[in-house]
């Protein structure tokens, strides 16, 4: 499935991009904001990687691993999104 491979590559590249971008930032608030975006990208990577493995192998073991990866990925996405919303509102509040 080319869509899974594309999502895996794009999310991994975004994760690396955000992690490298954190190094160049001085403000702790923007660092945490960028880290929240990196966490979302990592969650998408983990979830799509798990789904891709199940599509490729289609065994019972792959199903358990897929479900574990999808659960971990969704946890990362949800937690990253909550952090993203929180720090975005803090940045907007401080900029006003």
List the helices and strands and how they pair.
Elements: H1 2-23, H2 28-57, H3 60-95
Helix pairs in contact: 1-2, 2-3
Number of strands: 0
Output the structural class: mainly alpha
Radius of gyration: 16 Å
What is the helix tally? Answer: 3
What percent of residues are in strands?
under 5%
Low-confidence stretches: none
- State the end-to-end CA separation: 46 Å
Q: What summary fits the major beta sheet?
A: none
Shape: elongated
Compressed to H and E, one letter per element, the order equals HHH
Mean pLDDT: 95
Integer count of domains: 1
Helix content: over 70%
Transmembrane segments: 6-24, 36-55, 61-84
Protein name: YtpI-like protein
Keywords: Membrane, Transmembrane, Transmembrane helix
Pfam family, one: YtpI
Report on this model:
- The chain has 96 residues and is an all-alpha fold.
- The chain has one domain.
- It has helices at residues 2-23, 28-57, 60-95.
- It is elongated, with a radius of gyration of 16 Å.
- The N and C termini lie far apart (46 Å).
- The model has no long low-confidence stretch (mean pLDDT 95).
């Amino acid at each position: 499935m080319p869509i899974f491979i594309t999502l895996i590559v794009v999310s991994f590249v975004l994760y690396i991009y955000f992690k490298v971008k954190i190094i160049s930032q001085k403000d702790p608030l923007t660092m945490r904001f960028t880290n929240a975006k990196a966490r979302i990208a990592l969650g998408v990577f983990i979830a799509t990687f798990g789904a891709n493995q199940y599509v490729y192998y289609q065994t019972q073991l792959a199903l358990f691993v897929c479900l574990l990866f999808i659960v971990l990925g969704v946890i990362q996405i949800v937690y990253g999104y909550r952090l993203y919303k929180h720090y975005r509102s803090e940045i907007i509040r401080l900029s006003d």
